[in-house]
Each structure stands twice: as structure tokens, then as C-alpha cells.
């Protein structure tokens, strides 16, 4: 139900995959930023920030897989269907 609603809102599997990759990068940035900005707090605090943000990536990748599966069932993932829809838009 949630996946269908996300699909209807225009969120595609590519968006979720990109969010997963971005969260990995943000995790590294949060770790490094915390390590530098909060030098007195130690490595443990920086590690916690990095792990906290890093936990988002599997969720985004899981959503990407679920959306991809839904798109395959819906028929919106195949290149032929995308091409066919574009041709219909041009003709209509």
C-alpha cells in the first residue's frame, strides 16, 4: 500500500537508490564533521553520528527494491513501455 502510494506520488526506484547512495556519503560527512567540530567529545560521538545516518541507507535501498518490484509488475519499468508512452504523448 505504501509502495503503491509512493509510486503514485512519482517516487521511483531510482530516487530511492540515489537517496541510499547519498545517505552513505552523508554518513561519512557526518562522521568527519562530528570528529572535527566536536573534537573534545572524542571518536565515540563521531562514530555514533556516522552510524545513525548510515542506518538510513538500507531503508532507502529496501524501498528502492520494493519500488522496482512494483514497477516491474506495473509495467512502468521496461524501456519498451516508456518508449510507447512517449510515442502516445507525441501523437496525442
Unreliable parts: none
Helix content: over 70%
Give the class from helix and strand content and strand pairing. Answer: mainly alpha
Q: State the distance separating the first and last CA atoms.
A: 31 Å
Question: Which series of helices and strands comes N to C?
Answer: HHHHH
Main β-sheet description = none
User: What's the shape?
Assistant: elongated
* Count of separate structural domains: 1
The proportion of strand residues reads under 5%
Q: Number of helical runs? A: 5
What is the average of the pLDDT values?
Answer: 84
Written account of the structure:
- The protein is mostly helical and 92 residues long.
- The chain has one domain (16-91).
- Helix content is 83%, strand content 0%.
- It has helices spanning 2-8, 13-37, 43-54, 56-74, 79-91.
- Helix 1 (2-8) crosses helix 4 and helix 2 packs antiparallel against helix 3 (43-54).
- The longest helix has 25 residues, at 13-37.
- The chain is elongated, with a radius of gyration of 19 Å.
- It starts with a helix and ends with a helix.
- The mean pLDDT is 84.
Layout of helices and strands, plus pairs?
Blueprint: H1 2-8, H2 13-37, H3 43-54, H4 56-74, H5 79-91
Task: Give a nutshell description of this structure.
The chain is 83% helix and 0% strand. It has 92 residues and is mainly alpha-helical.
Amino acid at each position: 500500500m505504501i509502495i503503491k502510494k509512493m509510486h503514485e506520488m512519482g517516487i521511483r526506484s531510482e530516487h530511492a537508490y540515489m537517496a541510499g547512495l547519498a545517505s552513505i556519503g552523508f554518513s561519512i560527512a557526518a562522521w568527519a564533521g562530528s570528529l572535527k567540530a566536536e573534537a573534545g567529545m572524542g571518536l565515540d560521538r563521531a562514530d555514533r553520528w556516522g552510524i545513525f545516518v548510515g542506518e538510513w541507507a538500507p531503508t532507502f535501498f529496501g524501498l528502492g527494491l520494493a519500488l522496482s518490484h512494483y514497477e516491474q509488475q506495473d509495467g512502468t519499468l521496461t524501456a519498451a513501455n516508456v518508449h510507447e508512452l512517449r510515442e502516445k504523448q507525441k501523437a496525442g
